[in-house]
Amino acid sequence: MKRLAYFLAIAAFVFLTQCKNYAQLNNDKLIFYKVVADKIISSALQEERGYKLLKDYFSFGPRLSGSEQSLKALYWLKKKMDEAGFDKVWMQKTMVPRWERGKIEKGFISFSRKFKGRKLNIASLGMTVATPKEGITAEVIEVKSIDELMQLKDKVKGKIVFFNRPFDKTLVETFAGYGGAVDQRFAGPIAASKLGAVGVIIRSVTTKDDNNPHTGVTGRQKDVKPIPAVAVGVQDADFLSNALKQEPNLKVTYITSCRTLPDAESFNVIGEITGSVKPNEVIVVGGHSDCWDLSVGAHDDGAPGIQAMEVVDLLKRNGIRPKRTIRCVFFINEENGSRGGMEYGKYALSSGEITLAAIESDRGAFTPRAFSAGADSITLNKMRSWLPVLRKALIENIILGGGGADVSQIKNAKVLMEYIPDSQRYFDLHHSANDVYSEVHPREMELGSAALAIMAYLISEEGL
Fold first, then answer.
1. For the segment 35-52, what is each residue's pLDDT rounded down to a tens digit?
2. Under 8 Å CB-to-CB from 108, ≥6 apart: which residues?
3. Whole-prediction pTM value?
């Protein structure tokens, strides 16, 4: 018995010694990674290279898929990757839908004792159809939801449906507020058309109390006739709602001239730093290059896309060679089709490479907060053990979640992830004329670039 106890004591001693050595090894790595993180952060904040690129990037104007401005911007992105000395740079051909807003967007109250001639600030929803040249004139029926609309049935025929459910500002998480309101923009016109409506007006999905309309894609259904759909500024939405309470039979007229053209040739732009040990294992960091045409898409997704590019540039210019390949992808057509994401997804499946992780940056370039990851508890806990390093760039948590629209097309990725900056101002700007260069703060953006670079580097060195 004493002999057994002796051997058990020896075994316990050896086990504890090994655990101590393992802990010490981890501590050594932690110190090393903190030094690398400091180097990345200092370089990003001091040099502001990504932020400085934005001004030239935005000089092309709005970059809706298939537009001339978009193509010019894509070739510029490739040129900048080449100039930065990326190990490999290429353009992946992708056919994309081509929708143009047109020059005419007018809305006004056309029949009313009290409000006749009062203008409404409108913008066509993406991929909708134009009105006839004389416009659409009809009485307006206001609803707060698609369910409420469906209960009205025959009362909808020949009317303009006005979806007026506001963004829920009581929610701290603004993406939850957006998700709670955006169905009326995407699916509302389909539901209204099924009931015989002639047009749709959507209250802009935004947190900001101004009068700039916020656009975004609207859905189509093969067996449902498309009807012209527009967004209206929230102040005009409130005005129209109050006017309808006073005069339920007033009429609104709006005229639009958007059109859909044949699909156009476009590209994903891809650049990488090749892994020194496991080059066939890839970490993708991506954003989308396209944006809606009411602005240059500074936060959706101009600055976030440049952040993804700066991940590779930060490693290259600081002489940091990752074990695994870290690849930046500018996906085309996220806003109205996700064709770029699907095309890259096909490549990922057929390339023979292992996509270890795919991280999307598509929530603006505000102050870093967290990452989300679609991973099991073991992998999540492993990544959370890196938080002492990531906190240097203000990353406080890694939450259970997943990736964005583009990286979600990479079906064989081991882990899909999303970079999460502070979201409180994002929907003030999203899909509107508000989303401009002056809204990007250089320190917030560069800290985000650093956070993404540190995360990609840690995955490269530690694996998942």
1. 999 999 999 999 999 999
2. 117, 118, 119, 120, 252, 253, 254
3. 0.93
